[in-house]
Every structure is written in structure tokens, then in C-alpha cells.
Amino acid sequence: MGSLTFILKGFLIGIISAIPVGPVLMHTLQKSVSDGRKAGFSSGLGGTAVDTVCGIISAFALSGIGDFVDKYTTAIEIVGGLFIMLVGFRMFLSRLPKERRKKSWSAGNFIKSASMGFSNPAALAVMLALFATFRMDMGGQPAWVPVLAILALATGSAIYWFCVSGIVARLGDRFNFKVLVVITKIAAAGIFAFGAILLVKGIISLF
User: Fold this and answer.
1) What pTM value is reported for the model?
2) 8 Å CB contact between 21 and 156
3) 9-38, pLDDT tens digit by residue?
4) Strand extents, DSSP E, 24-127
5) Where on the phi/psi map is residue 33: left (φ > 0), alpha (ψ -120 to 50), or beta?
6) Are the C-beta atoms of residues 2 and 111 closer than 8 Å to each other?
7) Are 186 and 34 in contact (CB under 8 A)?
8) What is the C-alpha separation between 57 and 132, in angstroms, rounded?
9) pLDDT value at residue 8
């Protein structure tokens, strides 16, 4: 298989891995609507960071990390679920200003999204499944091929979030304050629900 094929596949994996609905998406949508494209994009890049790390683990088959995740999946689900529920609860109680804000890059949005992504062990499982589906075995390739494939993955994910945050922010310009409040409450409820599902799944696995 040609080296270029691996790079193109990495780009596609980056896009596909960012698509599933989850707390990162809900957070990015809410920030794009309430704070503008740059704030939403900084939130989406938190998801890109998660996808990139999971891609590196999948590409180089770091069994040690994989074994760690398998061993402590229950703990990750319980702690991660509680964390995500807390984020959703605080977002639900937050008050939006009467005028729509236009914020720039936010490290806080990035860190919050990345934390929610890393709190979900399913993120690594999805990435491993994608690498298996696309047959991304790069063992016999030169060292630069996996590097470029991971960079392509990160690029694909970042482009996806750039497009999503831009489109949603533009739509958000047409919303009034009441609509923004409703969207924020829905996004917060969605994030809380994802955390609750993760928490319940972890508790059930204890028995």
C-alpha cells in the first residue's frame, strides 16, 4: 500500500472520528452559538487533541496504554461520567449576557472539551476500530509515514470543527437572546445525559 494512501486514510479517519454526537460536539455547538466561531472552534480543537492522541496510540499500538485503559475502564467511566455531568450542570445554571458575545480563542474551552473527550474511554475504542477498518497497519512503512498520517488525522479533525463552528456561529447570528438560552439549556442537558450514561455504565460494570 502506497504511503500517500495511508496519509489520505488518516485524513478521512480524522473527519470521521470527529462526527459522532457526544459532549464535545454539544459543547462546541453551544460555544459557537453563544460566543462566536473562534470560541466554538477552540472548543472543537479540544476534540482534535483527543482524536490525535488516540490516533497515536492506535498507530503505534502502545499496548501498555491500551492495557491501562482496559484495566481501569470502570474507574474512567465513573469519574469521567461525574466530571461530564458537572460540566453540563454548571452550563445549565450559567447565565448568558443579554447581548451575544464575540470571543476569540479560549484555552478554557479547549481544556474543557479535551477533558470531556479523555474522560470517555469509548474515544480510544472508536479510533482503534477506525484504524482496523481502514487497515492502517504501517509497520513496514518508513518512519515519516505514521507521522504524516497522524498529522493528516489531526488536520481532518480540525477542518471538521472549523466548518461546524463556522456554520453554527453564522446561524447563531440570527438567534435572539431567548433562543440562545434555549440552545444553551439543551446543550447542557445533552452533556449531562452523556455523563449520566457513562456513569451508569461504569456502575453496572462493577456488578
Assistant:
1) 0.78
2) no
3) 999 999 988 887 678 888 888 888 878 888
4) none
5) alpha
6) no
7) no
8) 13
9) 93
Q: Which of 52-56, 64-68, 172-176, 203-207 has the lowest mean pLDDT?
A: 64-68
Give the HSE-up count for residue 158: Cα atoms under 13 Å, Cβ half-sphere. Answer: 12
- Where do we find the cell 438560552? 181
pLDDT tens for 73-118 read 788 778 878 887 887 887 787 766 555 556 667 788 899 899 888 8
Helix (H) or strand (E) holding 21: none
Q: Distance from first CA to last CA of the chain, Å, rounded?
A: 45
Look at residue 98 and give its three-state secondary structure: coil
Cα 5 to Cα 155: distance, rounded to the nearest angstrom: 16
CA–CA dist 84, 114 (Å, integer): 11
The CA-based angle 65-70-73, given to 5 degrees, is 110
